[in-house]
Amino acid sequence: MNTNEEAKPKLQLTKIWKCKNESCKAWVREEFAVADQLCPMCKGPMLRTMKHLPALQKKAKARTK
Q: Which of 40, 49, 62, 65 has its CA 20 to 30 A from that of 5?
């Protein structure tokens, strides 16, 4: 394996919301979507679909004393 292949993140099928407007390229991961499901860019309707994306890294919460 060369270093270029090692640097590429593993992709996984992820649920997303994608703008229905063909001229708008906006999409958002389902876990970050808002309740009204309007496009954050053009305010148009969104469509639920799937996309291959790198996995998100979970950040550890800071411990409180």
A: 49
Give pLDDT < 70 ranges for the chain.
1-6, 60, 62-65
CA atoms within 13 A on the CB side of 26: 16
- How far is residue 16's CA from residue 33's CA, in Å, rounded to a whole number? 8
pTM of the model: 0.70
Question: What is the Cα 49 distance to its own chain's centre?
Answer: 11
47-65 burial: b if 16+ Cβ within 10 Å, else e: eeeeeeeeeeeeeeeeeee
